[in-house]
Amino acid sequence: MKLKSVIYSLTVEDVQEVANQELGRDLTDNEIKKIKDIIAEKITWYDAILDTINEKIVNS
User: Confidence band (pLDDT; 50, 70, 90) for 4?
Assistant: First the structure.
């Protein structure tokens, strides 16, 4: 059985960096919980993978 491995992930620290740059403060734990699942829904992972395959594999 092939083990799954992570290619890219976002951390709470990544979210806090954006919050600090844009809001000037950390988000609370409750605020993180509110946005956590929504962030994943907004990432167009299929398109990002396809574009990168086309750019680096197909068109190189």
Answer: confident
Alpha-helical runs (H) found in the chain: 12-23, 29-42, 45-53
Residue 27 reports pLDDT greater than 90:
yes
Query: Mean pLDDT for the chain?
Result: 94
Record the tokens describing residue 26, joined without a space.
């950390």
Tokens of 55: 């750019």
Q: Is residue 10 helix, strand or coil?
A: coil
Q: What ranges do the domains of the chain cover?
A: 12-58
Handedness of CA 27, 22, 46, 3 (dihedral sign): negative
